[in-house]
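ESCALATION

Customer reports they have been waiting on this structure for their group meeting. Please prioritize. Original submission:
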Amino acid sequence: MGEAAEPILAVKSLRKHYGGLEVLKGITLSVSSREVVAIIGASGSGKSTFLRCINLLETPSSGTLEFDGLSIDFSQSEHLWRRASSLRRLRTRIGMVFQSYNLWPHKTVLENVTEAPVRVKGMARTEAVELAHHLLSRIGLQDKRDTYPSRLSGGQQQRVAIVRALAMAPKVMLFDEVTSALDPELVGEVLDLMAALAAEGMTMLVVTHEIAFAREVSTRTIFIEGGCVAEEGPSRSMLTSPTNDRTRQFLRRVLHKPSAALAGA
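Update from on-call: job pushed to the front of the queue and completed.
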């Protein structure tokens, strides 16, 4: 048998505290290229903080992160790793999509998508516009290119936010409960786009309460409880027959009703 491929992303013993409150308590996780990892857990369990630490929107208190040849030890003095070159390298190669869209309201859809490739990557504007047209056509929003975000539905705004992240050609995409602010009838159009990205081989970490999506699309699921990984495993088996009592309780609550598969002792 061949050797296992090196993970594209690896965090080890990641901790984050705010004063005396420890939110992350030593999470270790490796993610392989093309893998889709679903992250589930109750509100306040540390899921979103974990994603924000990976993208360095939050500074971990300790632990290590390795990504695409970049290695960061957060026990070192902050100035040793928080160099502009390191941050740019990480943030341009790890895309992140948020619950609240975070589109620039004063810019059109086209301007939202082209801004980062031009300003951060130095892409020629004509090339960025061509790329934006291609991506917007893919999601059926080419006709909205000159529209401002306030004139779009929530589902349309979130799809534009995903396309804006894709325009940077990231190696990994982070999704932080991206459907939780949407009306139920708009959730499907966003999940369909994410499923298509997964099918094309995009490496993804997805914080979600959409259990059916996690079961069908993700390769692996981790359940975070109180800042720790309480259970992890292949998504279909874990989300059908979890072994951890807290995972079972959580899934019962999220699915609104107990099922035979989750009723075991």
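Sent to customer with the following note: Strands lie at 9-18, 21-31, 36-40, 62-67, 70-73, 94-97, 172-176, 203-207, 220-225, 228-234.
Escalation resolved.
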